[in-house]
Amino acid sequence: MADAEVPGRAPSVCGQCGTQIAPALLACPSCQRLVHAEELKRFAVTAERAAQLGDPSAALAAWRQALDLLPTDATQHQVVSARIAALSRSLDGSPAAAKHGSGWGKGAAGVGALGALLFKFKFALMFVLTKAKLLLLGLTKAGTFFSMLLSAGLYWTIWGWKFAFGLVLSIYIHEMGHVQALQRNGIKATAPMFIPG
């Protein structure tokens, strides 16, 4: 039976020079042709298109996938690494420079802070509703939901139901923040799993 070509797996023979290539190699040992050249071109097109459409997270994800298919000593690896670093910096943004204000400005800032505190309670519900989509998305994953229940059940027997659900929910919200941050930087992430203990 002949070996079928498996998608994502390196071909066993170089298309340019005919040299046998081990599955783990990313470039031909003889002619240095990139094994995944076609996939790399697709990732580059996807990344450029995402950048043109103003979606740096998608561009970053495509460049990260391309980086995994490049040998570390290749020039292309360094170029793609530089693009990833630039996109990461653009996503992070630069911190704003601090300005020195006058005494009147400082007083107005105090009044503004008091006003913001008053508005906080009014808009707290809206803030929760805007973030609810992310939090509910994780609960649609059966592994996350059932492992949360298992953890809550274990903690319930030890510390009581109020503490158990408070702990599990606070851990869940915290971990979903990590998921959102990873996805923003183009790294694939799924909802968390809870391991009670």
From TrEMBL:
Keywords for the protein's UniProt record, in alphabetical order: Hydrolase, Membrane, Protease, Transmembrane, Transmembrane helix
What does the entry give for GO biological process? Answer: proteolysis
Keyword Transmembrane belongs to the record: yes
Task: Please verify whether the record's keywords include Hydrolase.
Answer: yes
Q: Which residues cross the membrane?
A: 108-129, 149-173
An example Gene Ontology molecular-function term? peptidase activity
List the protein's name. Site-2 protease family protein
Q: Which organism is it from?
A: Candidatus Segetimicrobium genomatis
